[in-house]
Amino acid sequence: MDIFYRCRCVYSYQLKNYAGRQSGQTTSAGARCKLIIKYGVKFMSIKVITCTTCPVGCEMEVEHEGKVLIKVTGHTCRRGEKYAENEIVNPRRTLTSTVILKNAVVKLLPVKTSKPIEKDKLFEGMNIINKIKINAPVKMGDVLYENFTESGINLVAGRDAEQLIINN
Fold first, then answer.
1. CB under 8 Å to 7, separation ≥6 — which residues?
2. Within 10 Å of residue 145's Cβ, how many Cβ atoms?
3. Strand pairing class (155-157; 117-118)
4. Which of 34, 60, 105, 106 could share a disulfide with 74, CB 3.0–4.6 Å?
5. Using H for helix, E for strand and C for coil, what is the string for the chain?
6. What is the per-residue pLDDT across 95-135, written as a single tens digit (0 to 9) for each?
């Protein structure tokens, strides 16, 4: 029977006496892959996260295997447990940036997504933002790009921008 040891410094599990190693030594990522392929060994991870849903800011330890949540410790409310689950299963972020603004006193317009988008789509979103050029005037909250990276999530203006008037 194989025995696993938890190493808190690298947040991984280790196989005792694998390939002549003494217990307590860490295994490299390559060795872990070989263990998974050869023996079907699965490694659980522990991720330390700080909850941002309330002002307390609990530091939680989340045990998970891939995207499967196993245990959450360190939270003081249910919102923290839900936050930890979302952070492991489907992490989402509100994307904020600036776009080029034409015909205005200011040259850049702050923008953000109307709702959080999947963390995996942040670079895709930035590629879209880098191509956008907006003409003034713009009001805060105006939708600049509909269905930004997902259906129902828009890119909106973060401030008002008046049109530049040139008097001859």
1. 13, 14, 24, 26
2. 19
3. unpaired
4. 60
5. CCCEEEECCCCEEEECCHHHCCCCCCCCHHHHHHHHHHHCCCCCEEEEEECCCCCCCCEEEEEEECCEEEEEECCCCHHHHHHHHHHHHCCEECCEEEEEEECECCCEEEEEECCCEEHHHHHHHHHHHCCCEEECCECCCCEEECCCCCCCCCEEECCCECECCCCC
6. 999 999 999 988 999 999 999 999 999 999 999 999 999 99
* pTM given for the model: 0.66
Assigned token pair, 81: 């447990």
- Tokens representing 29? 């990522």
Q: Is 32 left (phi over 0), alpha (psi -120 to 50) or beta?
A: alpha
Distance between CA 64 and CA 81 in Å, rounded? 13
How far apart (Å, rounded) are the C-alpha atoms in residues 69 and 63? 6
In the chain, the amino acid numbered 36 is I
Q: Which amino acid is at 97?
A: S
- AA letter at 110: P
Spatial distance between the Cα atoms of 154 and 111, rounded to a whole number of angstroms: 10
